[in-house]
Amino acid sequence: MNISATNMIDPKDITHNIDVSCRQARQAPERTIGIHKGRSDGPTLLCIASIHGNEPSGTIALHRVFKTIKTLNPSTSGTLVGLIGNRRAYAAGKRFIEQDLNRLWSCDRVRMLRNGIQNQSHPEPHTQAPEDKEQIELLVAMHDVFDNASGPIYCLDMHTTSAKGAPFAVVGDTLSNRAFARHLHVPIILGLEERLGGTLPEYTYQLGHVTVGFEAGQHDDPGSIDVHEAAIWVAMMSIGILNPDEVPASDTYHQTLRNASAGLPSVLEIKSRHALGEHHTFKMKPGFKNLHPVKKGDLLATENAKSIVASRSGWLLMPLYQGQGHDGFFLTKSIRPFWLILSSWLRRLNADAIAHWLPGVRRHPQNNATLIVDPTVARWYTTEVFHLLGFRQRTPSGDKIIVSRREHDTPRPHKRT
Ligand SMILES: [Zn+2]
Fold this sequence. Notes:
Blueprint: E1 32-37, E2 40-49, H1 57-72, E3 77-84, H2 87-92, H3 107-119, H4 130-148, E4 153-161, E5 164-165, E6 168-171, H5 175-182, E7 188-190, H6 192-195, H7 200-206, E8 210-218, H8 222-239, H9 250-260, E9 267-275, E10 283-284, E11 289-290, E12 292-294, E13 299-303, E14 306-309, E15 314-317, E16 327-334, H10 337-348, E17 361-364, E18 367-373, H11 383-388, E19 391-393, E20 401-405
Helix pairs in contact: 1-8, 3-4, 8-9
The structure holds zinc ion.
């Protein structure tokens, strides 16, 4: 893929009817949905759609956006790129073929794949698993975008859910990710990446690119396409690719996002995940939607003939109503704006730099951005305090809690020793 190419969209690919999507053709679509390069240098917005193949909404929304941009011909600065995440699963209309492509982005795995790309030492494609091929192709396409960017890079990872409900944005909790997500007007969910390892947004924000995962609604709801489309336009306007004065439907796009999530908390934090095994018998009780308010003890699902009830009161997120997937549901709680403002202040003051002075807390011997917390001594410093300071919780090590400062949060670099 050459980034210098202009809009590559083929009008024949455009479909506005989700029921007649090109999934029915059973032929994997091109990786690149479109590239629009502005008249001058500026930010790059990389939109990745359908990394889960049963979520066509983002792909269709991108086709619409590229078509409209071509018609409007505005004086853009920077670049919009749209890529399909999992082409083969998209053609099959399945979340994935063999492995969830949105759980395969651990540092070690990506390093191995990139070394293979550079040394051309990967096994023959016909011997590779479907998602290995997808990830290698996607890595090449994404890094082509990154290498050719002329300004800051923003990534929008576009999803839908099996449940109905309001759209929401998922971010790794850095101040820049939060700021980008706030422009999109929908509830912001913090802490999901601590529960789900190896997601694509975690990979791109660890590269230093501002990243938001955007869930637009139910998989097959045409309204999800409208929400995705609005999010792409609002994202382009908010980061300066487009001047809102040149977008006739600018107000409509903002209003679409505001209306879709009216009355909901603006920021929530994941408090628990109901994980599912490989051969689960999980069945969600019908009628729940995203950001559904629940009370402690409410019946949520059944699994192995047992009732699953809410372990706490809060807001239900991503209740599973499809066969594939390993997350039954998540429970979240809203965060009051005071705590968000306080955490911004503390991070800008680099308060994390003295967190290891607290009793029961010490620096990791190999990484000064990581702390080892002894919960028997530091029992007053809950994970909420470390979240406030910009740390994320890692996999526990024995009886100790491991937390790491997120990189690319504040301007101060966090050197590894
Ligand atoms: Zn998804």
